[in-house]
Amino acid sequence: MSPSWRDQVQALLTPADLTLVRFARGWRPKAIAKSVVPVTESHESGMPNWTGALLTLGQALSSNEWADADLSVILSNHFVRHQVIPWRDELRDESELIEFSRQSMRKTYGRQAAQWSIAMSLDRAGQPYVASAIDSQLLDELKAITTAQGRRLVSIRPLLMEAFNWAKEWLTNSYQWLVIVEDGMICASLVGKGGWVVVRSLRARSDWPSEVVAMLEREQFVVDEAEAAKTVLLHVVNGEQVELPANQWTVRHLRSFQANRAGASVLQCVL
Question: Which DSSP string corresponds to 66-125?
Answer without folding.
Answer: G-SEEEEEEE-GGG-EEEEE---TT--SHHHHHHHHHHHHHHHH-GGGGGEEEEEE--ST
